[in-house]
């Protein structure tokens, strides 16, 4: 069974930092892109950051310069380092993996940023 499990969410005050992790397991192979998306209450899910198998990265405009995506192939893990957090960053953060054939989503981890 394929699983993507996010962790690291929690409550943080504005200006603070938080790190998220996503561990994938099961029969996932030929990974092309891994990334993070988020969904704020009452809003559509949006791109946060992606990283390709060649380590190319892409960020949503609202997080550029503040968030950093990285991966550890040996641990089957993708990370998201979030700095200078703002209340607008509040939401459920989802991990996504794209393979040659499939797209997989995690269940999400909640990040709440207080002002």
Tell me briefly what this model is.
This protein has strands at 3-7, 10-13, 18-25, 31-39, 46-52, 57-59, 67-72, 77-82, 91-99, 103-105, 109-114. It is an all-beta fold and 115 residues long. The strands form two sheets. Strands 2, 4, 5, 6, 9, 10 and 11 form a seven-stranded mixed β-sheet that branches.
Please provide a written account of the structure.
The chain is mostly beta strands and 115 residues long. The protein is built from no helices and eleven strands. It has strands at 3-7, 10-13, 18-25, 31-39, 46-52, 57-59, 67-72, 77-82, 91-99, 103-105, 109-114. The strands form two sheets. Strands 2, 4, 5, 6, 9, 10 and 11 form a seven-stranded mixed β-sheet that branches. Strands 1-3-8-7 form a four-stranded antiparallel β-sheet, with no helix packed on it. Strand 5 and strand 6 (57-59) form a beta hairpin. The chain is globular, with a radius of gyration of 13 Å. The termini are far apart. The model has no long low-confidence stretch (mean pLDDT 95).
């Amino acid at each position: 069974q394929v699983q993507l499990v996010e962790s690291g969410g929690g409550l943080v005050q504005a200006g603070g930092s938080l790190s998220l992790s996503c561990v994938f397991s099961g029969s996932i192979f030929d990974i092309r892109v891994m990334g993070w998306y988020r969904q704020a209450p009452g809003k559509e899910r949006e791109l946060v950051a992606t990283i390709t198998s060649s380590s190319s990265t892409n960020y949503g405009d609202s997080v550029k310069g503040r968030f950093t995506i990285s991966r550890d192939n040996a641990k089957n893990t993708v990370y998201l380092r979030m700095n200078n957090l703002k209340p607008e960053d509040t939401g459920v953060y989802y991990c996504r993996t794209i393979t040659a054939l499939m797209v997989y989503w995690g269940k999400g981890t909640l990040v709440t940023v207080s002002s």
